What does this fold into?
Amino acid sequence: MAQRVREREESGRMRYGALPGDDDVLHAGDVVLGGRYRVVGVLGRGGMATVYAAVRGERGDEVALKLLHAKAASRADVEYRLRNEVELVAELGDHPHIVRPLEAGRLRECDDLPFVISARACGRPLSRILASERALPAARAVRIGLDIASALLALHARRIVHRDVKPENIVVDEAGGREHARLVDFGLASREPSDAGAPRVTAVFERPGTTLYMSPEQASGAAARCAFDVFAWGVTMHEMLAGVAPLAGLAAGELVARKLDPAEPAPSLRRLQLELPDALVELVDACMAREPSGGPRWCTCRRSSSRCSIGSAGRPTHSRPPSPTSGRARAPRQASPGSRRGGLASPCLRRSCPCVD
It folds into this structure.
């Protein structure tokens, strides 16, 4: 057993040892949390935190340890948010399309900086896949979308809102010869308030999330609603199918202004005239509809999902050719064989969603 742990650690050094940083407070070989975890290397860095690869105990289970930077740790509510992340998702148990956070607290070995430990997500972020491949074949995008829809259904059944669904927070691996997508990073997750007096994780008018994927109501600073995730799922599907997210390239301020402008048309795949199944286009557009209350967006998704299908060969059934005059349209890509047959489920997955009032 000890030999297997050493092998995993050595593998980790080879895979991540090329990413040392002057500001790293942990290094390969460091032992933390009373000897329960041994750091292997660095997985990535962001403006708020550094994520380390680590192994747990003699079993050598691989985990991701996210350690917040000192400037981010100064917020009074940061520890509450991390513990809230673990406690909310713990209700779900193990889910095949969710990477669950395991524990959170403050790391004594690092000046009590806040941390959260999650199961290790193997595979590539969807954002990296899209950066290299641009638009995905329809059947592949549908399979990834179905996996994330399944994760959202499990969250929304408990009135948990992720609030940051986007390609960066979706990890895709090929275990067992089939791509599996999993939702990660629940740092902004919040319970949907059941009444006006319910507590909020964020202040009024605070806009947690990523602006490009926000619904108009999320951009306005409204309290968390499951409809936030439906909109972001639609934007992510749009990006997978069209190769670009709606309004991509705009500055954050202009993005918010466009989203809040009632005269601004809702994002639409149909306007791009891509060669895609009509029902798939209808479903994605329904998810991105401009509906501040959230309810009509959900209902339209359910109606669309019941009619959306991909042929058994995985080829789009849309009969309209791409528009030769549309500057935003992209050449269609042939979907790969082996797509899932039958209904494409929205996050509601053809059942009544408990978050619809």
